[in-house]
Specification:
Layout lengths: L23 E7 L3 H12 L6 E7 L6 H8 L4 E4 L5 H10 L6 E6 L2 E3 L5 H9 L3 E10 L2 E5 L7 E4 L4 E3 L2 E2 L2 E2 L10 E3 L6 E5 H6 L12 H11 L3 E12 L10 H18 L2 H24 L3 H20 L17 E2 L3 H7 L5 H6 L2
Parallel strand pairs: 1-2, 1-4, 2-3, 6-14, 8-15
Antiparallel strand pairs: 4-13, 5-14, 6-7, 6-13, 8-9, 10-11, 12-14
Helix pairs in contact: 1-2, 6-7, 7-8, 7-9, 8-9
Length: about 350
Amino acid sequence: MFVTLTDMEPNNINYVPVPNLPLVAIVILNWNGKAFLEKFLPSVLLSTYKNVQLIVADNASTDDSISFLQTNYPTVTIIINPTNQGFAKGYNTALSQVKADYFVLLNSDVLVTESWIEPIINLMEANKNIAACQPKIMDYNNQQKFEYAGACGGWIDSLGYPFARGRILENLEYDIEQYNHAEPCFWASGAAMFVQAKIFTQMGGFDEYFFAHQEEIDLCWRMQLAGYSIYVQPQSVVYHVGGGTLPKGNSKKTYLNFRNNLIMCYKNTAAKKLVYKIPIRIGLDIMAAYKGLFSGDGGYFVAIAKAHLHVVKWLFTEQVKPIRKANYDAKLVGVYKGSMLWQFYMKKCSKFSQIIKSK
């Protein structure tokens, strides 16, 4: 059934703090997203959790997002960032001004269900070692399928390629409740990410060099290295449009994904493993670049080449900072020991369950 706002009953949007409940701050990062706010903000205001505050952090939008909020939603708190700081710094700047027990990082193009908050907060309150958690994320435009950005819990393979329960590369599975149990995973999606506020601050937030894309995977990786757990709670369900800021196929999106993934792997992998993993990754990236070139997508080739050059630049600039202090021997959950690409392309495993069963 296609879920819309008309399926929901109105609720009181003026929340009164409840002392016995953790304070949850829902923070929506917005950049020229007035159309999404107009469409999906009402669903957030219908949330049934009783101790919540709603904040829109605006990344210097040039549309009329701010005036729209001030006119139509005067009770919504607005934080205005001075420039478009991207996902990483934009959230870091905004969350440094928010006081709460839990932050919920929510994309503006997400339709939430009424009781989406309670299952995750209950889980995280029962296990204080859970630093971050995501709901089950479904495709807004095809609501029987999982959505690309996190699906039902993020994983990663031995070479640093991310995938998820319900999503392998571009292949999205239908939800037949095959992943309907809460469990630890490797990363929680930034499209709808619940995080303990004190741990987010303790970890230094997102790596601002990333700007956008895979910064949440990097943060979750660092959290695991610090001894914390990451979870998915499918009892909570949201519907994500996806590609609202940078659509799939966009050259900048390709560049950021390839650049940030290599930097993330370098930061969070023990040196003894880097000596063979990074050359393999570079080789696979080059193969992907030439595949794009020979398919007529020169922009894809250029984006990957640019990403590699900027990784080298990062090594000689940002790497002067003492970032390699993690416990690289920490046990990581949600890591597939083999190659997801090998299983997908060579073994024709297109579902998460097929890949995980492959040894």
